[in-house]
């Protein structure tokens, strides 16, 4: 996608770029905590299915559209459902990583801001995964949805959800797939100046349709993570530019520099009432006081 910037925004503010090694360790640690946190919430099968029933009933009480409405659109085409499964399996991590790399290199201030937002969002989401295990709609019999990953492929989950060693299938609430996609889109919209930059919002929109259509998440999973990221943005402001310190000359030098060479005649004329200083010339700071004293002596 085209992300042309304005000329004033073309060069990155290298002074705001944090050390690379430290950032690599921080980002790697963030991803590691993400994976370990999800695995720590494994099990809790009965609680996860009980919570799934509550979420399903709440969505119906709120009159939210059924997840099956989106899935039925995907199931019209074998190719389309496979594309959705591939998008779900392959875009989540690489898109977020490329986003952080580009911001670090081209928009260091925005990088620090977005990295903090992602860290806060991920931490809050992992806490909810531990407190509220939730079976996805593809596992809920009352939902009547198809596990598109298992039926059509590709699938990122194991056949036994309770003992899946690769991912926690009961960490549906909230959806970090949608939360990270939203953070990427907002970060790029803020960091770029192209008139087409709002098209970045298509990434979370497509992600939302994919996670719901593949029956991996409920609508409420996306709603909750949107609320969490809104709180993160409210609490973490984009850092401003560092103030530029200007070294002012000594007073004597400033007074001498105030009147350019050869402008003495103009300056003396400017002391006479009714005359005007020519454009581009400034009187010395002492001139008004000197004129007042000379007038008093008369």
Which descriptors would you attach to this protein?
single chain; 298 residues; mainly alpha; 58% helix; disordered N terminus
Could you characterize the architecture of this molecule?
The protein has 13 helices and no strands. With 298 residues, it is mostly helical. It starts with 19 loop residues before the first helix and ends with a helix. The model is unreliable at 1-9, 243-254 and 264-272 (pLDDT under 50).
What order do the helices and strands follow? HHHHHHHHHHHHH
Number of helical elements: 13
> SS-based structural class?
mainly alpha
Strand content: under 5%
- Number of strand segments: 0
Radius of gyration in whole Å, from Cα? Answer: 31 Å
* Helix fraction bin: 55-70%
- In angstroms, what separates the terminal alpha carbons? 75 Å
Q: What's the overall average pLDDT, rounded?
A: 79
Poorly predicted ranges = 1-9, 243-254, 264-272
Main beta sheet: strand number and arrangement? none
The geometry reads as globular
Give a short synopsis of this structure.
Helix content is 58%, strand content 0%. The protein has helices at 20-40, 45-61, 67-74, 78-90, 92-106, 108-131, 148-152, 176-191, 202-213, 219-235, 251-258, 264-270, 287-297.
Question: What is the topology?
Answer:
Blueprint: H1 20-40, H2 45-61, H3 67-74, H4 78-90, H5 92-106, H6 108-131, H7 148-152, H8 176-191, H9 202-213, H10 219-235, H11 251-258, H12 264-270, H13 287-297
